[in-house]
Structure of DNA-directed RNA polymerase sigma-70 factor:
Amino acid sequence: MQADETEMRLRGLMLGALDGDAAAYRRLLADLTRYLRPYFARRLSPAHAAHAEDLVQETLLAIHTRRMTYDPTRPFTAWLHAVAHHKFVDHVRRHAIRPTVPLDDDSPIFASDDSANAANRLDVEAVLGEVSPRTSDLIRQTRLEGASVTEAAARHGMTETAAKVSIHRGLKSLMARFAGGEK
């Protein structure tokens, strides 16, 4: 099912639920459960995989208690993603665990693969232009092209540790810059 079709169907169910349609609300919660389980399972390490169901239930409860905050003029899936993301962050903080999802894999619940889009490639190049050329190349090789840190380090004649530090600092700098804080 296309993301647009999913959005329309879930949005329709949510609007029905907000209008008091109990059947639409039950269907919405059942459908959301089907999407949320893999969303959380992808983000948890195998050691914490048992928490996925708890996160699903916490998210459904948050959707129930905050359903009146949903703005019907906005996409439902964006609102859902925000609620689910916040529940995941709360869980990580509460359990003092580190998420196992790479920083570049914070895909939304209803992600579609549009990596072939030329505009996206230009955006990535513009973002990577904010760090040094060597760091940019290391990030590109390891995060976009699938090279290992060892391979990327060897191509640049540096140690694996130095490459890891450079990648980490580059990603941290980009996150700070595009989250509103300049570094």
Notes: The radius of gyration is 20 Å. The chain has two domains: 3-105, 118-178.
